[in-house]
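Hello forum,

I keep getting stuck at the same step: I have a sequence, I want structure tokens, and every attempt I make locally crashes halfway through. Rather than fight my setup again tonight, could one of you with a working pipeline run this one for me? It's a single chain of 128 residues.
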Amino acid sequence: MLPKRNYYLNDYFDMFNMPYNKENMKTDIYEKDNKYILEIDLPGIRKENIKINYENGYLTISAEKNTLSSDPSKYVRRERFYGEIKRSFYIGMKKDSDLKAKYIEGILTITFPKADIPKKEIKNITIS
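Reply #2:
Ran it on my machine without issues. Output:
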């Protein structure tokens, strides 16, 4: 069994501990002009097979790659990944409209502002 790796970026992104294997989405994260930018390698996956979901501060990317041949008995060796992969990142509270994504030549790029939207304050009501 391969060892687990921990991924952290300034304690802001909560990337789950994932076993290192060839199915993981290789991701670079950097900041530029008050935005975070994620670049995720998804070679050989069609744009229509990629889903991005944002809920409760978590950004989840899932992708599916289908097999090329329906008859696996013709393969002598098979190393390329087929199936579904998924990865989640905690990015904080953002407006849905602030999340932008594009997919060019096998690289999914997602951008969003560094600043979180303000949380609603809980106000106490005085009882008279």
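The radius of gyration is 19 Å. If your local run keeps crashing, start a new thread with the error log.
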